[in-house]
Amino acid sequence: MKQKRLLMFSIFFITLMLVSLYFNAPTLWAGIGSVETRERLLQERNASKTQDSTSTSSTTSSTSTTSPSSSLETPSQEDIELIKMKEDLKRQQEYLEMERKIREEEELKKKEELKKQAELLEQKKLKMEENDQEKSLLREEKLRQREEELQKREDQLREEALRKREEELRKKEQQLREAELVKREEELAKREEELKKKKTRGSLDLGELLKTAEFHKAFSIAKMVSDFIDLLRIQYSEMVMMKLKKDGLGTAIDVKYIKGYVPIHATYINTIMTTLRQKRNFAVNFDFAQRSRWNLKFDQALQNDFEKEGWDYLMDQQETAFKEGRSLKDTQPFVQIDTINDKKVLKILSPVLASTAACIECHNKWEQQDEVKALRKIQGIQEGKTFSKNELMGVLSVTVPMESSNSN
Fold first, then answer.
1. What b/e readout covers 324-348, taking b as 16+ CB neighbours within 10 angstroms?
2. Is the pTM of this model over 0.85?
3. Is 159 within the bounds of a domain?
4. Which residues form the domain of 119?
5. Which of 194-203, 297-306, 357-366 has the lowest mean pLDDT?
6. pLDDT tier at 199, thresholds 50, 70, 90
7. How far apart are CA 299 and CA 278, in angstroms?
8. How many structural domains does the chain have?
9. Which end of the chain has fewer surrounding CB within 10 Å, N or C?
């Protein structure tokens, strides 16, 4: 604002000087012309006077010694005004020159100030750019540090989550293992109890029991029935089933609608027992039947706890017998004394082995049939069973009354 005011003042002053010069120029030039003319006239007059003085040197010398001021003419009022005008003009010129120098200095200063301002602006710009770069670098550094912190935190959280997960899995696995161990221990304890019970119940000391007449007679009857049924099964297989096979016929599970076929031996023996039950004079509580876990009909499956316990007992005996290289026939049968209808009875479960080729071939064939495989799937046992020589195939369950053994 100050520079603007100074510039306006300078323009005003210059304009004023130009206007003054415009109006005073004729008088000034006229004055200058009269001065020059007057000086020339004065010089000519002084020269004439000098010539007159040489002719009369005495007169001139006396005149010059007596009155020295007579040779100079006193300046007139116009000369004085002309001198003043020259001085004013000189002062005006000096003032204009001074104004010009002042303007030049001010313009120079202004240029220098503008240059300095430009330099300051450039420095400020550079400094701002440097600051911006520093701020950008700081911002990037902060962002990088933040990212590192977040990454570190995320890694820590992930590691902590993984550690917790591992601990939970380890704990759960430990719990499952402990529960499994407890369950296994319970199963083993239960199994041992069952084996102990089976051993106690199924491995009775026959030597001591046979000393009693009651048990001896009942056991003799049961053993005789068991041996007779086993012999009947073998003869039926060899004489009937093999003969029919040679003739192009054979056996079937249900022979009612199949011409030329006879029932399997288990069905035949169970039919004999059914017929005996229908006779009035037959002993009360006397019974026998063939059972198996590999049954071909539902009524030939293990029916009660005695038969299921006896089956497991004989399977354990078979494993032991195979390890010792002996036959399961040499093993003691599963024996139990029970009470039915307030009467004591003797129960014997004897093994039925795959003793003949006819039995093995026939049963292995049946095990490959779709209907038998479906039955095994329902029972939840192995499908496609293949029997080998002297392997446990079934059991013969015999029940004999003890109190009426003599009369019957």
1. eeeebeebebbbbeeeeeeeebbbb
2. no
3. no
4. 2-53+74-133
5. 194-203
6. very low
7. 18
8. 2
9. N
